[in-house]
Amino acid sequence: MKVETLVLGMVETNCYLVSENGSLLIIDPASSGRRLVDRINRDYEGKLDGILLTHGHFDHIGAVDHLVKEYGCPVYGCRDDEKLFTDAAVNSLMGMNATVKSPITWVKGNSMKVGSIIVKIYYTPGHSPGSVMYEIGGILFSGDTIFHESVGRTDLYGGSFSQLKQSLDVLNSLPYDMVICPGHGESTTVGHELRYNPFL
After folding, report:
1. In this predicted model, what pLDDT tens digit does every residue of 93-111 receive, in sequence order?
2. Which residue range forms the structural domain that includes residue 89?
């Protein structure tokens, strides 16, 4: 499995391109749709099997419609963030907003297969009502649920610190050496966060 990280947009969102056995997934295409299309066409044979959204905040969804128009690929997200995905009035910060007009397939259950890639799903409300983390090939893509020695803010629409604290309990069931690829900032591991993250 190959994981490529692109840092996109005004708030430096981590967008991940995950490829394996000829399939390609994009996690949180924040912005720069043309740049992503150029990269996919150049390095991934012009094929995109799906878009995974960790949550609905504007800085994680800006290029979704551009990619769907280009590739006709499915989009996956949690229904509890439907309002954030579709209503710019509640999904705005510092004068910036974005929505998703493309159809979204709502994730359900604990795993799914997109292309040839198996994706495990962890439901982690708190940063937003529909925040999820995806595990692919033993790597955890955490969105804004957890960062290196920090966690996502809970003062935006639908946020809940008590929910976030409860959601973070899932890390206790994961391998200590599991790599975490967050929505912003540097990667970390489950063990490092359990030891050094003040919110844990």
Report:
1. 777 789 999 999 999 999 9
2. 2-196
In Å, how far from its chain's centre is CA 111? 15
In this predicted structure, what is the pLDDT of residue 94? 73
Give me the CATH number covering residue 178: 3.60.15.10
Residue with the two structure tokens 């259950």: 109
pLDDT recorded at residue 156: 92
**Number of separate domains in the chain:** 1
- Longest Cα–Cα distance of the chain, Å, equals 44
Q: Please give the model's pTM, rounded to 2 decimal places.
A: 0.96
What tokens were used for 75?
């989009």
Whether the pLDDT of residue 9 is over 80: the answer is yes
Q: What is the DSSP letter of 198?
A: T
d(CA 184, CA 8): 10
H/E stretch holding 76 reads strand 75-77
